[in-house]
Structures are given as structure tokens and as C-alpha cells.
Design brief:
The structure is a single chain. The chain contains twelve helices and twelve strands. The strands form two sheets. Strands 3-2-1-4-5-6 form a six-stranded parallel β-sheet, with helices on both faces. The chain folds into two domains: about 10-210, Alpha-Beta Complex (inorganic pyrophosphatase (n-terminal core)); about 215-340, Roll (Diaminopimelate Epimerase, Chain A, domain 1), CATH 3.10.310.30. The chain has about 350 residues and is α/β, with parallel strands linked by helices. Strand 1 (about 25-30), helix 2 and strand 2 form a beta-alpha-beta unit. The longest helix has 16 residues, at about 35-50. Bound molecules: guanosine-5'-monophosphate and manganese (II) ion (MN). Manganese (II) ion binds next to loops.
Length: about 350
């Protein structure tokens, strides 16, 4: 048995909402990662087995290396199917908001979700949940939203309704949000859950391979280029920075997800505990931050880049040029020396 993390009252409330309706929409943050996809599809499979009509709508495309996930073929991408999605939001009776804390993280899909009359249920593990949802299942101490989905289904008494497809999706989110169980993964209950998922038939080695060992040659070369030519080290601040311009990304035929994991790599260098990656997009600079130990990546992101996240994994954005954004970061490093 695993402990009862989610409050009993919340379980009842969620159950009651699900029982009342048929048309359920599941949404996740922009640039969906493994946990966003895993929690959304895990919940989708569960809702299918209890004969609801769930639809997953993601704001922007998800990486190819999640396309093997069962049910991913049914996922709608808002930016590619705005009209159809708006109609679904219009008819929705219940919206699950997964793996993000504030509606801003939906970017261009934010208004469609906020304008919908459907009640909203937030299920998430980021700090500082917003108050846009009627029910908030927010547990930042839990390593992944996918783990929360598993806990929720079990607590609703439906462990038996978790089929293999559902289990595979949940496992994927648990795996990716912990870097393959290399960080944020010391809670023993994670492994109790995993053993249950394996009993259901999950092939964890195969999932690892499908997610982490399916690079394109272009992606591998982009990684090599970034580390060789673009990684700057600031030894006195135990920090590293990688920047990539839009032109550089184009040179390597950049596709969604191609830079995933890149920000973690400098942390493998002895003495580096803070790593930042800046990627130039059409309208902004997207920033990813990672740290080790008690160095607060989320604080740096909130202070400098209008962002947030977890202590060791955060993100943000900048509307200045890449050069200016880099300078802002470099000028600020001294301010965080006390955290080293
Ligand atoms: P990533 O670097 O993988 O995009 O994001 C790392 C973590 O930071 C994730 O937990 C993500 O939810 C959070 N995050 C990423 N981008 C943003 C952002 O723009 N704002 C906030 N508040 N959090 C972000
Ligand atoms: Mn997550």
C-alpha cells in the first residue's frame, strides 16, 4: 500500500465531477513534455475505460519521440486545429488542467480554456498553483503529475481499470520528470508504483529506449555542436550557459523536442551545479534552467526571466534579444553566489 497523499475530500470532489458528465477535455502546458503527455494520456485511457468521452488538446505540437504512446494519435494540437478545438472547448462539460500551475502556461490556448464554462480540475506538481480551477489537486512534493494520476485513479477505487496502455503513459511521465529516475526520485513509493505498473505489463527498458534512444542524426549533431561550440562555463559561479540562435537551429533542422535534455548535460561536469539553456524562438527567447542541490533554479528564473518551476528544474522567457538576455544572466550571476 502507498500512503494517501491526495486529500480524501479532493478525491470525492473529483469523482463527483467525473460522474456527472460525459464530455471531458484534458489540457496540458505548451511544449508538452513526457509528464504532460503521460499524465494526459494516462487519464485519457482511464476515462475511456469508464466510458466517458475524453479529448486531449495540447497547445503546441509534442515531440516525435512520444508518438509511440498509445492514444497519442488522438491528441489534438490547438495551434493546428484551432476551430475544431474551440468547438470542443465550447461543448466541454469538464476540463482537466494537467502539469501546469497557471493558465499563462497555455499561451495561445489560455483564453479558450478560461472562456469555457466547464468546471476545471487542476492536477499538478508545480509550486504556487493559480486559482483558475474549481478543484486543485496540487502536490509539489510529488515528482510527476503522472504519479498523481496513478494515485488519483487508485484512490477512486479503480486500480483495476488501469490497462497496459494507461500504465505505459503513467510510467513515461514518471520516468521523464525524474530524468530516468536520476533526480527528484528518492521517495520509495515511486518504486512501489513502478512495480505495480510493471506487473501490468509495462516494459520499462523498452520505454526508456523509445524516449531516450531515438535521436535523429541532426539532433545528435546539434547536441555535439552546442557542447563543443556554444557552451560557456563560469567556474567561479559553478555555472554553464548554452545559447542557440534561430539560424543555428535551422542549420540542424530543429524539430520540437530536439533540445530536450541539452540543459542537463553541463551538470555532468565536475563542479557545475547550475546550467542554463537559451533558445531563440520566433517571438521570444525560451530559457531552461537546471541545478543541483539547494541552488534555486526557480528563483533565478522568477527574478530574471518571468518564469518559475521547481528548485532544480525551471523555465522562463525573455522578449529581449538573445545577446541582451545572455548579458542579463551574466550580470546577475554574482547575486546568486550565496546559494553556491
Ligand atoms: P523546461 O525547461 O523543461 O521547459 O521546464 C522546466 C520546468 O520549469 C518545468 O517544470 C516547467 O513546468 C517549468 N517552466 C518551464 N517554462 C516555464 C515558464 O515560462 N514559466 C514558469 N512559471 N515555469 C516554467
Ligand atoms: Mn511535470
Amino acid at each position: 500500500m502507498i500512503s494517501k497523499i491526495i486529500a480524501e475530500e479532493l478525491i470525492h470532489k473529483v469523482q463527483k465531477e467525473i460522474d456527472k458528465v460525459d464530455k471531458i477535455v484534458i489540457v496540458v502546458h505548451v511544449g508538452p513534455d513526457g509528464d504532460a503527455m503521460g499524465s494526459a494520456l494516462g487519464l485519457w485511457h482511464y476515462l475511456m475505460t469508464i466510458e466517458k468521452e475524453p479529448v486531449v488538446i495540447v497547445p503546441t505540437a509534442f515531440p516525435d519521440f512520444y508518438k509511440w504512446m498509445p492514444g497519442s494519435e488522438c491528441v489534438m494540437v490547438y495551434e493546428d486545429a484551432k476551430e475544431a478545438s474551440d468547438e470542443i472547448f465550447g461543448n466541454a462539460e469538464l476540463i482537466f488542467a494537467l502539469d501546469f500551475n497557471v493558465p499563462k502556461r497555455l499561451e495561445k490556448m489560455e483564453q479558450a480554456v478560461l472562456n469555457s464554462k466547464a468546471p476545471k480540475i487542476l492536477i499538478d506538481h508545480h509550486l504556487h498553483p493559480g486559482d483558475f480551477a474549481q478543484i486543485a489537486v496540487s502536490y509539489p512534493e510529488i515528482a510527476s503529475t503522472s504519479e498523481l494520476i496513478f494515485r488519483l485513479i487508485c484512490r477512486m477505487g479503480d486500480f483495476a481499470k488501469i490497462n497496459l496502455a494507461c500504465a505505459e503513459c503513467i510510467y513515461t511521465g514518471m520516468m521523464t520528470d525524474t530524468g530516468g529516475f536520476t533526480y527528484n526520485s528518492n521517495k520509495f513509493e515511486i518504486y512501489i508504483i513502478i512495480s505495480e505498473l510493471i506487473k501490468l505489463g509495462v516494459d520499462k527498458d523498452d520505454i526508456y529506449s523509445k524516449v531516450f534512444n531515438t535521436y535523429s542524426a541532426d539532433r545528435m549533431r546539434l547536441m555535439g555542436y552546442s557542447l563543443y561550440k556554444k557552451m560557456k562555463i563560469y567556474p567561479e559561479y559553478k555555472a554553464a550557459l548554452i545559447t542557440l540562435t534561430a539560424d543555428e537551429l535551422k542549420e540542424f533542422n530543429y524539430k520540437n523536442g530536439d533540445s530536450e535534455g541539452l540543459v542537463n548535460m553541463p551538470l555532468s561536469i565536475d563542479g557545475i551545479i547550475f546550467s542554463v539553456f537559451m533558445r531563440e524562438e520566433t517571438d521570444k527567447i525560451k530559457i531552461s534552467l537546471r541545478s543541483q542541490g539547494t541552488f534555486p533554479a526557480n528563483k533565478v528564473s522568477a527574478d530574471l526571466f518571468n518564469g518559475g518551476g521547481h528548485l532544480n528544474a525551471a523555465g522562463g522567457e525573455s522578449y529581449n534579444s538573445l545577446k541582451e538576455t545572455q548579458k542579463k544572466f551574466e550580470d546577475a550571476l554574482e547575486d546568486y553566489k550565496d546559494f553556491l
